[in-house]
Request: fold
Amino acid sequence: MNWRDYQALQKVTNLGDRFVSYVDEGSGNNTDDDPVILLHGIPVWGYLWHQVLPALATHHRTLIPDLLGFGFSDRRDCFDRSITCQAEMIDQWMEKLGIAQAAFVAHDIGGGVALRLATLFPHRVSRLCVMNTVCYDSWPIELMLQFGHPGAKSLASASKTITSLGVALKSGFATSPNSEVMDGLLAPYHTEVGKLSLIRNAAALNTNQTTEITDRLHRIEVPTLVLWGEDDKFQLAKYGKRLATDIPGAQWEPIANARHFVMLDQPTPVATHLQSFLSATTAAVNSV
Amino acid sequence: MFGSNQTSPVAEYAATGEIERVYHEVRQTLRVRGINLIFRTWAGHKGLLPILWDTVRPNAETMMFEQSSDQIRAAAVELAKPLGDLGAKQQTSLGPSQAFQLHEILKLYHYINPKLLLIASAVRQGLDGELSIKRYSATEPAERIAPGVPAEMAALEMEDENPSDEQLQTLFSDITETLSLRSINSDYRSLALWPNYLDAVWRNLKPKVQSPAYTAAADHLRERSRRLASELPYPVPLSRTRLEGEGIDFDETLRSCETFEQLLPGLILNIAMCLRDWQPDDALLQSPFPATAISPNSQNDERPEFTGGAK
Reply:
């Protein structure tokens, strides 16, 4: 699926004076199943999940919002993009869509959002899978720190900036991604508005917003899977192992031959692990 | 756009010093999230944009300017009706989010383009010496609008002027050649974010823009703008002596104003035709972002203040 086909799937909803674009595919095998919400990280958007979406949507109602400031959600230069605000946005968005609770599958800063939801909005989270997520003081990485300097907007045009970012991101892959995928991941940011939005998103990265929930991780009671591209240079596997230790009952699942963008490096194993986890825990959640 | 002395327009991200100051004021005063080609072009000529903007700004801040723009917009909707339906929306497969964002962009241009035409007309007539008379006394200031971008307005987002996509390059070339443009306008660059939509728009628009009825409608809008510009409350004291004293090529400046004044009525009509696929005419007659008035005697502290940009 190319990014434009993916974009055409997106619906939109207003949350006050901001809007969120999201994909909502599949209907689930039975009415007891809660939906699955996939959260992306920085600097990408919901398209990140396009290779695992078909497998998940076959069995689950699968929703993929673009976080505020990302993808084709609101990108105007007039709001906070921190993971604190993103978690609040997800809470409001679920309310707007009438979704009481969902299974969260989340990557990178999307994982930070999901961890905040699981600790601070626990009624929203039925199951949790985090992949190569930011946590503790694992972030922001140097690449994003430099990118998030407010002066970065004046350094180069959007096309040059995004081209450079694309080159830097390749180290997040175990094998070179094809150009269609790479172009798609950064497509929303090739305009000046997109570039500036991404800079603002990077400027909003704040390690305090995961360190402040460290002491709450042990209170997460929902089934949790920590899935990790074990060769990740951006979010090291040691952080994933620590999460799997701190969250009671969490399952640690390293994925070989995968770096940060584990769902693109190894889409089939990732989809299989997710499907197994969701199937197994559906029964567990429904039996409670 | 500027004949033999053409320089590159100044992008927003590249603006510094006085240009950055003016861009900020333009956004706040015209109530728009981005800078259109007319200002980016003027910014490309050393010293020109601050003079033109500072001269026209007192009028741009007034409710009369806003209402005159509203009149041009409403006239464009009426003039678009006999030109026929465009049907581009119906011919393009757009997802719900795409359709929402495209509609918001169309509303943005529907709002801003009449203001740009009015500015082009005011500046051109100012250069011709037609607007040098002070109409309002200091004790009788014109009612002003509250500055600032409407919260619900979309970002002014656009495709690169030289897109990497070959089909888009071809489309841009066809547009610029057909309309004899030196640069592709912001409107087309924004619609290019949905290439299939722009393709449908242009496919339907191209035969219309070459018709006598379209030319007559554009001429009517231009005349309307000139008349409304001549009725704005404050003088626009621009002259050959003044500009040349600042080292600015007067004839080039005049030509640029004439070019934009020639071009903008068509763009206003085009957006009106596009929007008629989305909204009923009655709704389009109203401003998409109505302005509110502030006290005529409000002092400078209520004007947009530029505090940054020391580079």
